[in-house]
Amino acid sequence: MRARLLRAPAPRDRDGIADLLRLAELLADDPDPVVRKPVGIALKHAGAADPDAVRAFLERTGDRLPAPLRRAAREKLPGGA
Questions:
Q1: Which of 2, 30, 73, 78 could lock 43 by a disulfide, CB 3.0 to 4.6 Å apart?
Q2: DSSP state of 80
Q3: d(CA 71, CA 41)
């Protein structure tokens, strides 16, 4: 399982992660924790699967993304950032 996480994501996985990042950006401003928590969890797992895409997402969204979501997204990134 660990070796799978270290490989580059398949093109199909990249499409799914790109969709997830678009949805995360749309839902990031939702004040409901029932919405925000799953977004943070999804970002965390996306960071393990495609760290470059998540890093680019974090750079693009900057402080517009709430701090708990930024922390969750960084949690599984190599190097933690």
A1: 73
A2: G
A3: 10
CA proximity to 13, closest of 60, 54, 65: 54
For the CA atoms of the chain, what is the radius of gyration?
12
Nearest to 54 by CA among 38, 37, 74, 35: 74
pLDDT surpassing 80 at residue 81: no
Find tokens 């070796």 and name the residue.
Answer: 3
> Among candidates 61, 27, 30, which has minimal Cα distance to 42?
27
Helices then strands, each counted (H, E), the chain:
5, 0
Coil vs helix vs strand at 60 = helix
pLDDT at 16: 87
Give the C-alpha separation, 11 to 2, whole Å: 19
